[in-house]
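Field reference: sequence -> structure
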Amino acid sequence: MNLTNNKPPQDIQIERSVLCSIINDKYAQSASFGLIKSSAIFYVNANRIIYEKLKDIFDQGLPISTKLLFVELKKSGLVESVGGVQFITDLAYVGVLNEKIEHYILHLKELWIRRTLIDIALKNYQSAIDETKDVFELLEENQKQLSTISSELNRNKAKTMVEILKGCLVETQEAMNNGGLAGISTGWGDWDKKIGGLKGNNLIVIAARPAMGKSALALALMKNVMLQQKRCLYFSLEMSNSQIGQRLISSESGVSYSRAIDGRISVDEMTKMANSIGRICNDYIEIVETSAIKLTEIRSSCYSLKALKGLDLIVIDYLQLIDTGKPSGTRDRDLGILTGGLKSLAKELDIPIVLLAQLSRAVEGRSDKRPQLSDLRESGSIEQDADIVIFPLRPEYYGITQLDSGESTKDLMINIVAKNRGGAVGNIHNYCKIAFNKIEDINFVENNQTELPATNPDAFNWGERPINF
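Structure field:
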């Protein structure tokens, strides 16, 4: 199989014209050295060498001329390598491109990209037939290379304050038109007010001890996004597809999850479950069920789904179960590589990622059960990589049955926003019927006359001292 029969894409005449323009025109010099980041865009090796020497002259603050170019080439013993004295002299008379220089540089970049794609294809072919290579690592490397190429045309392009400020006003106008949201609505008014919705390129960490309801919270959040006809991808490293489906049905039908999976329900409840799935029975949620998955596989799945169908939200349950591959030395360093990689993925795809994480047992050893950012420091660099950190907490689980004011904590979930890179920190109260995997706004429950949890963020008595929420 011969993949190299055709001549690589190139335009030698334009390459020489660009070099001629640099030699003769000051505007072309400024434009070219600003737009060309690497001499690799020139196909002919002699042209690459000449460009590098012209840039050296420019960087020294010297006036560019064929005479100085000859001197620089002679110093390096490269005169004959580029075609000799006559070639250098003739170069000044090829033809100046002047104001069209940007167009022709773009043309050369496009040709370079085509040549690079061919090189990648050839390397991919050789790697793909080598069965000792990890196929998911090959996919990730290929995606990285393609992502780098696609961004090359605008790489390191500076923006003027005019462009930046106009962009800010556009973002603000879009948020105004979207009810004050800069991202996708969470489906909960108090959340949207606090964090401004789920914004593209954000890494949102939901961290808690077991039994606090973090998986229920993530599923409810994903369901709310799905109901807006936004496409979601859920990586479940702990629950099966069936368990996730049953939880979603339970939240919709109001039938106990534990009784449903054991079949301990009435005919009426079975009918209620069957009738409840209409809202959630669609293809806006896709679930990857696995007991072990690598970051490379997560990246591949996300890139593929975005390319094929589009993608608006990624949820991963949970961090510590992701396969870190070859250990880097310490567990916290391994987890740091994962969170850094997921933050990069969110930025590359411009999609929010909700990452669940397990907190250490240190929380259990304190009389004050409220998680703190310091509880994340043994879990890699979550605190640094995350844009938003939320700690769900159910006081009822710890035997705290009422506020100091006497109000009940029954079915209350307090979501502590401990970090919010784009806004304020604080607490969000939600109604949480954990047996039904149902999480709602306090106001929604109030308006629908459902059993209400406490709504006043007063102090809880944790045994030693009051803690203000």
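Note: Residues 449-469 have pLDDT under 50 and may be disordered.
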